Amino acid sequence: MNPVSPDGPVDEEAARLHRAKVWGGADRKLWDTSVDGAVGPRLRELADWAQAAGHGDAPLDTYGNGLVEELERRVAEELGMPAAVFFPTGTQAQQVALRCWAGRTGNPVVALHPLAHPEVHEGGALSTVSGLRTVHPTDAPRLPTAEEVRDHPEPFGTLMLELPLRDAGFVLPTWEELTGAVEAARERDAVVHFDGARLWECPTHLGRPLAEIAGLADSVYVSFYKSLGGLSGAALAGPEDVMEEARVWRHRYGGLLFQQYPAALAALRGLDVELPRLPSYVAHARVVADALREGLAEAGVGWFRIHPETPHTHQFRVWLPYDREVLTAAAVAQTEATGTALFRRWFAPGAGGPPGVALTELTVTSPGLAWTAQDVKEAVRDFLSRVGV
Question: What is the model's pTM?
Answer without folding.
Answer: 0.94
